Design the sequence.
């Protein structure tokens, strides 16, 4: 399995080349494919950082799956809040008229079942592993084995919550989020030095300023970086 271009870009921004995280993700995806031969995609999300990384077996299989859920609704949002394992299949969706267009459209494009596993730390969900298969029951009987592989919680498994493969949208946005965080980190370092405070205090001030001004903290960070750098080089805005 191979990363989509945005995942490769994000990993290069995070770690440079070669990426040990990329090697790890590819290894995990291939191991998961040994468990579920019909596996066509894997997305791993870091909840706190808002980052997602996606690997796919075939770009043709998943090329038309991006926006279906937003046309007629879908169960993905519900799954993110789920605590107990739930089951939901393409057939059930059609039979129950629940997410009808969503189910029909995704059924036509190759993803027939999904499995979402929460990753816990200290009793809190810190991420999710989302897997996509080309058969309706691809993950049946494999929850625990896959959870053990990814270090996830099998009892919190949610089946078929993202048949539209919408986690690819998060993965595509990840490079931008990495760049934004790099700007914020730079601004925090500059503020900490300028104000003679620790970086935690500097970051708190940055976010407080953004809230008071009603703007995005990233925009504030960009202004801080430009102002500080212009000051140091003797130029003016």
Sequence:
């Amino acid at each position: 399995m191979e990363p989509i271009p945005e995942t490769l870009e994000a990993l290069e921004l995070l770690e440079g080349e070669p990426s040990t995280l990329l090697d790890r993700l590819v290894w995990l995806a291939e191991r998961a494919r040994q468990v579920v031969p019909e596996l066509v995609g894997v997305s791993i999300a870091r909840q706190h950082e808002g980052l997602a990384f996606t690997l796919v077996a075939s770009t043709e299989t998943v090329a038309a799956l991006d926006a279906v859920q937003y046309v007629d609704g879908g169960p993905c949002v519900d799954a993110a809040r789920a605590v107990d394992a739930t089951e939901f299949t393409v057939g059930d969706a059609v039979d129950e008229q629940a997410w009808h267009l969503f189910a029909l459209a995704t059924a036509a494009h190759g993803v027939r079942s999904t499995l979402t596993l929460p990753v816990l730390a200290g009793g809190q969900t810190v991420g999710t592993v989302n897997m996509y298969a080309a058969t309706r029951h691809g993950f049946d009987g494999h929850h625990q084995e896959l959870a053990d592989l990814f270090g996830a919680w099998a009892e919190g498994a949610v089946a078929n919550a993202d048949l539209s493969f919408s986690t690819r949208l998060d993965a595509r946005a990840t490079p931008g989020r990495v760049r934004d965080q790099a700007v914020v980190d730079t601004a925090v370092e500059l503020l900490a030095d300028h104000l003679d405070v620790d970086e935690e205090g500097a970051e708190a001030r940055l976010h407080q300023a953004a809230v008071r001004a009603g703007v995005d903290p990233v925009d504030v960070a960009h202004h801080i970086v430009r102002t500080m750098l212009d000051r140091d080089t003797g130029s003016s805005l």
